[in-house]
Prior knowledge:
The chain is 29% helix and 23% strand. It has 13 helices and 21 strands. Helix 1 runs parallel beside helix 9. 50% of the residues are buried.
Amino acid sequence: MLSTARQADVVVIGAGIAGLAAAHHLTSAGLTVTVLEAGSRVGGRMATDTVDGFRLDHGPQLLNMSNPDLRRTPGLQGLRLRPFAPGALVRAGGRGYRVGDTRGARARAVLSAARTPFGDTLDRAGLGTALNRLAATSTARLLARPETTAAAALAARGFAPRLVDGFVRPLLNALLCDPDLTTSSRCADLVLRGFARGGTCLPAAGAATVPQRLAAALPPGTVRLGVRATDVAVNTVATDDRGTGQLPCRAVVVATGARAAGELLPGLRVPAFHPVTIVHHAAPRSPLREPLLVLDADRHGPVSHTLPASELDPSRAPSGRALVTSVLLGPQEDGRPDDIGVRKHLAELYETSTDDWEPLATHHDPEAVPVMAAPHDLRRPVRLLCGLYVCGDHRDTSTVQGALRSGRRAATHLLADFGFRPAATVPPHRIEDAA
């Protein structure tokens, strides 16, 4: 310990995945850590409810299996991931098409299919070439490209115009949760590269398993729920808990959401947000036989994208039932979309009747995804002062991977400031880690 007079060397405020990741990197280096969480559970926006045997996520988090932080963050070893089938099912021109599968005989059959809204055979073959080229491009080369908005950059990325409107644009809408594609082109390139590498997935048994695994792997008593931090300094944290009062420490890491971080740290930049609504339906059977992401290129209804969640991860639905999870982008009146309109749109997307689908839950989050408008700093500073640090997806990319990486960056800066070496499981940060 840095000082036996302190209850912990470091106090981390917030038990989302950024704060829990930072705590793991710090404890792995030999420091004692206390994590304060104002809520009654860990995970922040990565939450999962269980309703009648269905596991229902609160948010739209899609993970990227190729990102190294999912493998090397202490506590996440052995995390079970459920990958999507290659490509996506796109609804365009009133029909569904399998697009973007660039591997094997299936890819050749899909790319050579006749009479699709995605251009001629040469255009469709060019899609596979462009995705494969993007998958092999280094992060340094992607970040060296001129920065603009994702929408403005699409024409310069080697995709045919009809493929942009019919596939790439709706895919980026889903990956970025940005209906207008005002996101930085650099961020868009990074997430599209992750898709091209074939690693889009969901955690088994629900999104909440990620923070729960992180919390369970910390030393007993590290995480304290129901304790809200009201003020911070480099060597103390004031709380609203009478039993806790003030916590003396050597350093503080603020790992809350962007708005709460701005309240604790006046002057900290608070971004705008993309609102997202998640709608879950129970169905008698899965509407698809493969775990495919379903995209709407026609934009004729409220659903941006949808997925047969129980086909991807059978543990999300009870035996004999199916779970369909759908994502709506943008604000919703009273946070509750019209279920009849949603099911009508889903019937078109899946080309099946949804009359017997049962609505299970709706979760609307007006601050679901921090905006990454151009110009966007992919590595916003996490070190404010020696002894005071901040992390979260608002300091990196607005993804699960960005939150994990920012937690690692904050821990790395803290350890360097106080002369500690990171544990062997925490490799030094490299620009190639971006995704």
